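Help!! Second protein's tokens look totally different from the first
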Amino acid sequence: MFALLGDIEFTVADGIAGMEQRGTVDWAEHARIKGKPLLERVGDGLDEVNLSIELHPKLGDPEKRWRALREAKSKHEPLALVLGSGDYLGPHVIADLTLQHRRMSGTGQLLSATVLLSLREYTGAFTRKVLAKPGLINPALSGTPAAAAGTPGLLSKFMPSPSTTQLVVGHAKTAANVLQAGKNLYDQVKSGNASMILGQVPQLLGLTVRAIEPLQNLTEAAGLLQDGADLAKLGEDILGSVSGARSSLDPVDLGNIVERFAASRESLDQALTTMDGARPRLAGLAAQVLTRRA
């Protein structure tokens, strides 16, 4: 995960293309009869964070993601901003939301675009919602004045290591996001000719590589759970399908790419189907985290 704004999660796999942080200081300028003006510090300016987000079907549903951002802006509420590193940047409001269209369908449906999201620091009264995100919350701080105020640094400085259950849920979610992004790309490529498909092989292989690490981590973490044998087996099965998708595309040439691509796509579909089948089990673990039971 790259960052979390309220309950909106941003990941590189979802299209985060860039981030800019800006801080200012306000100075008053006093003219003098002789010599240069004198500067006097008035106070610190509001911090600003600017995000650039690419919307494309292979990264998720563009319309759905754009709608989520618009709804958050329309509520006019400050939202907690937390980086994936665990650093809490404090409450921010959506100050500007710009959609730069790249491609539209013949019926006006959004196909690809760039979103420019500008956030400004909020210094008013703010009660931070406690979110059960692995690696972002220190349960010991829940209900304390410091947690309510959202004091910067508490999360990153005094945060204990996430529980094994949190790790399992987090790795599973990361793997699922990558697999879904892979399926979206495969669906985009499948209608192309052999030459076009061959040109997309490096990107397809890159997606399969990105799925390997979270699946390995899922298998390892699940093996540490008392009742995690089924999830460890799940990770191994999905990893096997992803490895099959990768091996089908290496090596390939113009003569065999169509057949190899079909086999690779079938393996990736199987990986995603297996992951989808585990959603109830993973939802149960997530519920345990939410209720502080794991």
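Here's the second one for comparison:
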Amino acid sequence: MPQKYTPEFKARALKLIEERVRAEQCSAWVACTAVGEALGGISPHTLRNWWKQDRVDHGEAPGLSTAEAEEIKKLRRENLELRRANEILRKASAFFASVPD
């Protein structure tokens, strides 16, 4: 089961990665590997995903921001709910149209 990390922990890890990339002029992968080991064995893949998403969220890289992804998810749920309601109304309308007075 994936472990949940606090937003403060993630922010600290991202800050450490950025500092290491700037100070040592190394790649993000090298920085994520080193920071992951320093923070108690966090997977560099996890850290790199956090780092990439943070860059997208701050407009430094192209992609779908976290806020946009949440909005799309919310709209899809809402759309599904409306489709279900419309289907129920269509069936009810057909039923009542076929019932004689």
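Reply: Different proteins will give different token patterns, so don't panic. Residues 19 and 40 are 18 Å apart (CA to CA).
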